[in-house]
Design a protein that fits this description.
Elements: E1 11-13, H1 19-28, E2 31-40, H2 43-49, H3 54-58, E3 62-68, H4 73-81, H5 83-96, H6 104-118, E4 122-131, E5 134-136, E6 142-147, E7 152-157, H7 163-167, E8 172-177, H8 183-197, E9 204-208, H9 211-219, H10 230-248, H11 262-273, E10 277-282, H12 288-302, E11 307-313, H13 316-328, E12 334-336, H14 345-358, E13 363-369, H15 370-373, H16 376-383, E14 389-394, H17 402-405, E15 414-419, H18 428-438, E16 441-445, H19 447-452, E17 459-467, H20 470-485, E18 487-489, E19 495-497, H21 499-513, H22 517-526, E20 535-538, E21 543-545, E22 558-560, H23 561-572, E23 577-580, H24 586-598, E24 604-607, E25 622-625, H25 632-642, E26 652-660, H26 672-694, H27 700-712
C-alpha cells in the first residue's frame, strides 16, 4: 500500500498515541528504506529502533542509521591528540554501549539486528562533532521512511529510541509528507541526512561502524533465521501490560528526585489542617505547580489511594506546561480543550468517570482550560463523579468573575486555589467569592521573600516619565467626565461603578497605555541596548497614531502599539525582534522562545497580554514595560516574568513607563481645577512606583521622582469625587 493511502498524523505524542502501533508499524510494513539519525548509540536504543521493522524486512528493505558514541571528557581529550587514538576511543565507547538483554524479547531483537547487519540490511555509521579541535555531541533526532512509490515520510522531534521515551516520558514527534505542502521540509531533511551519511557535512566527522561492534552483535546471533513475528508477539505483551497497569494505577506520587522546600511543606500541612480547602498565594517562580501536585499526592495517600483530580488553567499553553509536571507526578492526564491532541478526550473523560464510579480504577486526572471547564458538557460530567474529588485551579483569581464563579461546584469536597494575586483589584465581591469557596490562605509567599531566598533574581528599577499630548489629555478628561455619571457611593462612602462605567475605565486605561510619548521615550532609552539580547518590550493592546511618520508625509494612521514598536526596533535600530502574542501558534511561540533563549538568533520579544499569566521565559534580563497597568494583579505578574532565575543571570533591569497628565515642567502653569480632574492618574502611577521601588536593588532611583510627582500634583490631599 502507498503511504498516500495511510492515515498519517502531523504529530504523535507518547501519552496520547501508541507511537509504535500507530506510526512505525503502519509505515514500515510498506517501506523499502528507513534512514534514521538518533542521539547516542547503545544496544538498547537499537532494540527500540528494531520495533516495527518486520514489514520493512519482509520487503527486503534496508536501514541506514547514524548515531553518536557516548564520550566523556577523557575520550574527547584523547581524540584531540590524534587520529590514531580516535579509532580506539570510539571502539571503546561502542563496546561500553552494549548491555545484556533484559528478557527473551530483547534477546530475539539482538539476534534480529545481528542478522540484519550480516545480511547487509542494516548499515550503521558513527558521527561526532569536531570543530577547532573541540568535540561536542551529535544529537540529531530525525527519520525518513520510503515506500516503493518514492513517497517519503520525514519525522523529527523529541522522541528518543528508548523504552523510557516510549512509555514513561512525555515525548513527541512531528511528521511531514513529501506529497503535501510539507514536501520542501521533507526534501531538506533528506538532503541533510544524505550529506551526513556521505561525510559531506563539514560540521561532522563520520566513521564506519567499528568491526568490534559487529563482532559483539555477532555474539548475540543465536540463529540465522530472522524472526518476523516478533513485532506482533511483543505488541501483544505490551498491550497486556498496559491493561494491568491501568488496573494497578498507583496514582499521584511525589517523584524521588524532587525535594520540597520548607515553605512548600508548611503550605501542604496548613491545607491539610483546613480539611483540604485553601489558597496557595505564592509569587511567580516559587513552585506553585509542584506544591499543588505534592498536595494532591498527600491527599491521595490520606484518602487510602482513591481520588479524582480535576485541574483547571486559564489557557491552553498553561495546560500543556502543567501536563509535563503532572506526568512527572505519576499521573496520566486526560487533556481536555478544543484543540487538544487527545481528540477523543471527551470519551476518555466519560469512560474514566464510569470506571472510577464503579471502582474499576481508583484515580484519574483531568486537566482543562477555564473555558472548557465551565462548559455545560464538562459541568455535567463533574456532577456524575461519585466519591473523593479535588479541584485545583491555577491563576484562581480569574474565578472571582461571575461567569466562572458559577462553575465552582459546591459538592466538590477538596479545593485548592493557586495564585500570586488572589485579591481582585476593584472587585471586592469577586475576591470574597474566592474566599468563600476555597477558604483562607494556607501560605503567602511574597516576591520579596522569593528574592531574598534566591528563588527569584534581584532587579534594578528605573521609572521613565511620559506625558499625554493635548489631544490625549482632552480625551482623557472627556472619558473621566462620562465615568462620573456612572459612579455612586454606598453608605460607607465607597465608590461603586456600573458596568458601563467599567467599560469606560477600560477605554481610558487603553488611552493611557497607548500614550504616544512612550514610543519616543522607548527609542531614547533602548538605544544603549541595541546590541544586547534577552530584552522584553511589553506593549498595550491599544492602537494609536503612528509617530514614526514625519511631518509633511502621509497622514498618520492608527496602528497597534506593538506593530509600531516592532517596526521601530527592527528597521530603525536593526535589532532581531519578534512579536509574542496570542496570534502566534503554540508551535511558533515555542520556536520563538528557543531562539530568544539562544540570544544570537533573536534579541527582543515584543509582547502583549499573553505573557501576563504563566508563560515561562526565564532568560529575560531587561524589560521595558510600556503597558503600565494600575492593576496589581497585572503588574505583579509582568514583573514576575522578568525575575525568573536563569544561568548567567545575576539580576534583571526593569524600565517602567510612568504616564502623567502633565509633564512636571509644565504643571506649574496648570490650574488647580484641571489638576484635580486628572490627578488620580498620577496617584495610581505612584502606587505602582512605590511597590516596584520598595524591593528593588536601587530604591533611591525612584524616591526623588515619587516626591516630585506627589508635590506637583498635591497627592497628599487626593480623594473625593475626582479619585476615579
Amino acid at each position: 500500500m502507498s503511504f498516500k493511502e495511510k492515515n498519517i498524523r502531523t504529530e504523535y505524542r507518547s501519552f496520547s498515541n501508541n507511537v509504535v502501533k500507530e506510526f512505525y508499524l503502519p509505515l514500515l510494513e510498506d517501506a523499502v528504506l528507513y534512514k534514521r539519525a538518533v542521539g547516542f548509540f547503545s544496544s538498547s536504543a537499537l532494540v527500540e529502533i528494531s520495533k516495527g521493522i518486520s514489514g520493512l524486512i519482509k520487503n527486503n528493505g534496508k536501514i541506514l542509521l547514524i548515531a553518536s558514541p557516548k564520550l566523556n571528557e577523557k575520550d574527547i581529550e584523547a581524540i584531540n591528540k590524534g587520529f590514531e587514538l580516535r579509532d580506539s576511543v570510539i571502539e571503546r565507547a561502542i563496546v561500553n554501549s552494549f548491555s545484556a538483554p533484559k528478557d527473551i524479547f530483547e534477546e530475539k531483537r539482538l539476534n534480529l539486528i545481528a542478522n540484519l547487519i550480516a545480511n547487509g540490511q542494516l548499515d550503521i555509521k558513527i558521527a561526532y562533532l569536531e570543530k577547532n579541535k573541540s568535540l561536542g555531541m551529535f544529537h540529531e533526532k530525525m527519520g525518513l521512511i520510503y515506500d516503493n512509490k518514492d513517497n517519503i515520510v520525514a519525522f523529527t522531534g523529541s522522541m528518543n529510541e528508548t523504552s523510557t521515551a516510549f512509555s514513561h516520558n512525555y515525548e513527541s514527534i512531528d511528521v511531514f509528507c513529501s506529497w503535501t505542502s510539507d514536501k520542501e521540509r521533507v526534501f531538506a531533511k533528506e538532503r541533510a541526512f544524505n550529506s551526513m551519511w556521505s561525510g559531506k557535512d563539514s560540521t561532522l566527522c563520520i566513521v564506519d561502524f567499528p568491526e568490534i561492534g559487529k563482532d559483539i552483535f555477532e555474539s548475540y546471533r543465536n540463529s540465522h533465521t530472522v524472526d518476523l513475528d516478533i513485532d506482533e508477539e511483543e505488541m501483544n505483551k505490551e498491550e497486556k501490560y498496559q491493561v494491568l497497569e491501568v488496573k494497578r494505577n498507583n496514582g499521584p506520587k511525589i517523584p524521588d528526585n524532587i525535594s520540597l522546600h520548607d515553605y512548600q511543606i508548611l503550605a501542604i500541612e496548613e491545607w491539610e489542617k483546613r480539611n483540604y480547602k485553601g489558597i496557595f498565594d505564592m509569587a511567580t517562580g516559587t513552585g506553585k505547580t509542584y506544591t499543588g501536585l505534592a498536595a494532591i499526592s498527600n491527599l491521595y495517600n490520606n484518602l487510602e489511594n482513591r481520588l479524582a483530580v480535576i485541574i483547571v488553567c486559564p489557557y491552553q499553553h498553561l495546560v500543556e506546561q502543567w501536563v509535563e509536571d503532572i506526568i512527572m507526578f505519576s499521573m496520566k492526564p486526560i487533556i481536555g480543550y478544543s484543540t487538544s491532541k487527545q481528540r477523543d478526550w471527551k470519551r476518555r473523560l466519560k469512560d474514566a468517570i464510569i470506571s472510577f464510579n464503579l471502582g474499576v480504577t481508583n484515580h484519574f486526572c483531568f486537566i482543562t482550560t477555564n473555558a472548557t471547564f465551565s462548559s455545560e458538557l464538562v459541568q455535567n460530567h463533574i456532577e456524575r463523579i461519585k466519591g473523593s474529588i479535588v479541584l485545583v485551579v491555577d491563576e484562581a483569581h480569574n474565578f472571582g468573575a461571575k461567569h466562572l464563579s458559577n462553575a465552582l461546584n459546591p459538592n466538590i469536597p477538596y479545593r485548592l486555589a493557586l495564585s500570586a494575586t488572589i485579591e481582585r483589584h476593584g472587585d471586592e465581591e469577586g475576591s470574597q467569592k474566592l474566599l468563600n469557596y476555597f477558604g483562607e490562605k494556607c501560605i503567602e509567599y511574597t516576591l520579596k521573600q522569593a528574592i531574598d531566598s534566591e528563588k527569584l533574581t534581584p532587579y534594578f528599577y528605573y521609572p521613565i516619565v511620559v506625558s499625554l499630548t493635548e489631544d490625549e489629555l482632552l480625551e482623557y478628561k472627556n472619558i473621566t467626565a462620562q465615568i462620573f455619571k456612572y459612579c455612586t457611593k454606598d453608605r460607607k462612602g465607597n465608590i461603586k461603578i456600573s458596568e458601563t462605567g467599567k467599560m469606560l475605565l477600560i477605554k481610558r486605561a487603553r488611552l493611557v497605555a497607548a500614550a504616544q510619548d512612550k514610543i519616543k521615550k522607548l527609542a531614547d532609552s533602548i538605544e544603549k541596548y541595541k546590541n544586547d539580547s534577552h530584552i522584553l518590550v511589553y506593549c498595550g493592546a491599544a492602537s494609536l497614531e503612528d509617530p514614526l511618520y514625519t511631518e509633511g508625509s502621509v497622514s498618520n494612521e492608527e496602528k497597534r502599539q506593538i506593530d509600531i514598536v516592532t517596526e521601530m526596533l527592527g528597521n530603525h535600530f536593526d535589532m532581531k525582534v519578534s512579536k509574542f502574542t496570542s496570534e502566534e501558534t503554540s508551535e511558533e511561540r515555542e520556536n520563538i522562545k528557543v531562539a530568544f533563549s539562544d540570544g544570537r538568533q533573536l534579541q527582543t520579544l515584543i509582547a502583549i497580554r499573553c505573557l501576563d499569566e504563566g508563560v515561562n521565559i526565564p532568560s529575560i534580563k531587561t524589560a521595558f514595560i510600556l503597558a503600565s497597568s494600575t492593576n496589581p494583579k497585572e503588574y505583579i505578574q509582568r514583573r514576575g516574568r522578568v525575575l525568573r532565575r536563569y544561568p548567567g543571570k545575576n539580576s534583571a533591569v526593569i524600565y517602567d513607563f510612568i504616564t502623567l497628565p502633565f509633564s512636571l515642567e509644565e504643571i506649574g502653569s496648570i490650574s488647580e481645577e484641571d489638576i484635580r480632574i486628572v490627578r488620580s492618574l498620577a496617584s495610581r502611577e505612584i502606587v505602582r512606583m512605590r511597590d516596584f521601588a520598595s524591593i528593588a536593588e536601587n530604591p533611591s532611583a525612584a524616591d526623588q521622582l515619587i516626591n516630585d510627582i506627589t508635590e506637583a500634583y498635591n497627592l497628599n490631599e487626593i480623594g473625593g469625587d475626582y479619585d476615579v
